[in-house]
TrEMBL record:
Residues 251-278 form the SHOCT domain. Residues 12-106, 137-226 form the DUF4429 domain. It comes from the Bacteria. It holds the Pfam family DUF4429. This is DUF4429 domain-containing protein.
């Protein structure tokens, strides 16, 4: 088609086999859109195209992604607010006829329907990171690292120590929006622990969100990138453990000692965990 359609917060560029969506960076643009920058949506990843009435004299042109085509939408699991849906283009109502034209044109180019068995839409590339309420989370493309915050992490997480999860050992990701109560990011190991804590604040495979910690525009692309890596990476990969910073080890031993003095860690747990930390030097 080769045409361009500009709406509020985004511009759609129509190509023969895809729609390139470029998001604005204005102050009123949802932060998730700004973080995404632009996305190319192959028409093979689209189930349908809809046109509906919007709010305050607008119409909404929307691509309906096929199930399993976009890891971002799979990770979101229907939790995104309407205004943060990256598949919506909001236009003024006086452009409805033009929007109808493009909706019909796009429908005529769709090539498939139903779920797909592989991701067709790309996600932000690693490295990615964000700060949760109890940890700093980072992803380098091969493994996820959780580095616990000494002010926010539970004693259970401090006892377990900082965590590293190779994507080859994961089966999926659970994301609960920070815009709802008890938001969190939980990694799902292929071999689940026999007594895995039900609460994310006690689970070393989870980080919890809070006010200003783990916002949607940081944690959702992170979750989607990990999910995409999990589904596409061979399970035989063996991670190479990285050496730890001695200053970081010393700080963690100090905090472990504080937990011990406060009675939150037993003598046996203190000795065992201290030995583990020293072995990482």
């Amino acid at each position: 088609m080769g045409d361009v359609l500009a709406g509020f917060h985004a511009v759609w560029e129509f190509e023969s086999d895809s729609v390139l969506i470029r998001y604005e960076r204005g102050i009123r643009t949802p932060r998730l859109f700004q973080a995404l920058g632009e996305r190319r949506i192959p028409l093979s990843a689209v189930e349908d195209v809809t046109l509906t009435a919007g709010r305050r004299g607008t119409v909404v042109l929307r691509l309906v992604p096929r199930a399993g085509a976009d890891p971002l939408m799979e990770a979101a699991a229907g939790q995104l607010k309407e205004g943060s849906d990256p598949y919506r283009l909001v236009l003024s109502a006086d452009r409805e006829t033009l929007a109808e034209y493009y909706a019909d044109e796009l429908k005529g180019l769709l090539t498939g329907s139903g779920p797909v068995d592989r991701y067709l839409v790309a996600v932000p590339e690693a490295p990615l990171h964000f700060k949760a309420a109890d940890a700093k989370a980072s992803f380098d493309g091969t493994s996820v690292q959780f580095r616990w915050s000494w002010t926010g992490a539970s004693s259970a997480k401090w006892k377990a120590g900082d965590q590293s999860f190779p994507v080859a050992g994961l089966s999926g990701v659970e994301w609960r929006s920070p815009e709802v109560f008890e938001g969190h990011l939980r990694l799902l190991p292929r071999e689940a622990a026999a007594e895995r804590p039900a609460q994310p604040d006690q689970d070393p495979a989870s980080v919890v969100f809070g006010l200003g910690y783990g916002p949607v525009h940081e944690s959702l692309p992170f979750a989607a990138a990990v999910l995409a890596a999990v589904r596409t990476r061979p399970s035989s990969a063996v991670p190479v453990p990285a050496r730890r910073d001695p200053a970081d080890i010393a700080e963690r031993i100090r905090h472990l000692g504080e937990l011990h003095q406060a009675g939150l860690v037993t003598d046996e747990e203190f000795s065992s965990k201290k030995a583990e930390l020293l072995a990482e030097l």
